[in-house]
Amino acid sequence: MTHPREGDIILNQCYEDFSNHYCTAIMPAGVKKPKQKASVEGTVGKIATAIIARLRNNEYTTLHELKTDVAAALEDFNNRPFQKREGSRREVFEANERFTLRPLPAFPYEYAVWEYGRVIGSDFHVTYRTCKYSVPYRFVGKKVDLKITDSLIEVYCGHERISSHKLFPSYVRNKYDTYQEDIPERFQKTEWNEHNIREWAASIGKQTLTVIERIFKSYRTSEQGINPAMSVLKLSKKYSSERLETACTMALEHVCVPRYSHLKAILASGQDLEYKEKKKNENVSSPSGFVRGAAYYGGDDHAE
User: Is there a contact between 59 and 51 (Cβ–Cβ < 8 Å)?
Assistant: First the structure.
């Protein structure tokens, strides 16, 4: 929080989100103005004595047990009669405060972090931790901000929330979460589709077709697999179909779903040529026994 001597007080994003979630107004005390928060500080001290000090000698093995005793101690504190006036904190709350309060939100506040200035790619997805989340196609090319909690990722364009997704766990990589309504109709009418891409792959070779099939299976919709598959097949134009087939054969021995980056590295470094030569030499030098043939054993000179 930025709290200058003059000018507006600027809350940090998380603090402001907390305030908005519970529809509260945050009014920080002035700098070096302890009297502005005397009532709060006094209440904190009383609660520390009534609850923390009261439970300080107890031992707990579960969080549930601790929360139960804290709630009971707080209830006793609120119901305890005032020393210098009539009533208790509970009675004052019920008589003067409860009717002025809003109901609590259906879900408690979740701490969030923000990522700013992400650009929506031509595939109408935004990337976070290698995984991709869809937004309506009209936002392609625009900058967005991401709000990330433990369970959700929300996408904002300006002050408008344009999409919300369940967050992939941190160990999940290269996955897509795509809403069907975010996919534009023209993607269904593209010149290249899964069928003719598979035909191109099959014309190159069996191993290339296997790579392309696995790429398509790794995505939720076939449209998402078009660009990754095409980038692989276009390598045949630069390095030849024969070399791409060898690279796919080599990559499949080590990677479940080879992609452009794997195959490009193999072809650019010439590993596919070394691999092919090695296989050729293994076939030529494979051990074999000396066979005399039927004539040797059938001759009279060797009959018993």
Answer: no
Task: Compute the distance between CA of residue 119 and CA of residue 125 in angstroms, rounded to an integer.
Answer: 9
Is the Cβ–Cβ distance between 115 and 148 less than 8 Å? yes
pLDDT reported for residue 271? 93
Handedness of CA 245, 247, 251, 256 (dihedral sign): negative
Counting beta carbons within 10 angstroms of the beta carbon of residue 163, is it exposed (0 to 12), middle (13 to 18) or buried (19 or more)?
buried
Beta-ladder partners of 154: 147, 164
The encoded tokens of residue 3 equal 């709290």
pLDDT tens digits along 65-100: 999 999 999 999 999 999 888 999 999 999 999 998
pLDDT digits (tens, 9 = 90+) for 218-255: 988 887 888 899 999 999 988 999 999 999 999 999 99
- Angstrom distance (rounded) from CA 261 to CA 138: 29
Q: Which amino acid is at 96?
A: N
Q: Give 97-152 pLDDT, tens digit per residue.
A: 999 888 888 888 888 888 999 999 888 899 999 899 999 989 989 999 999 998 99
For tokens 């593209």, name the residue: 190
Q: Which residues on adjacent β-strands are paired with residue 125?
A: 134
Measure the CA–CA gap between 276 and 35, rounded to whole angstroms: 82
Could you give the C-alpha distances from 168 to 129, 133, 175, 215, 280, in angstroms and in order? 9, 10, 8, 20, 45
Q: According to the model, what pLDDT value does residue 72 have?
A: 93
Cβ neighbourhood burial of 29 (10 Å; 0-12, 13-18, 19+): middle
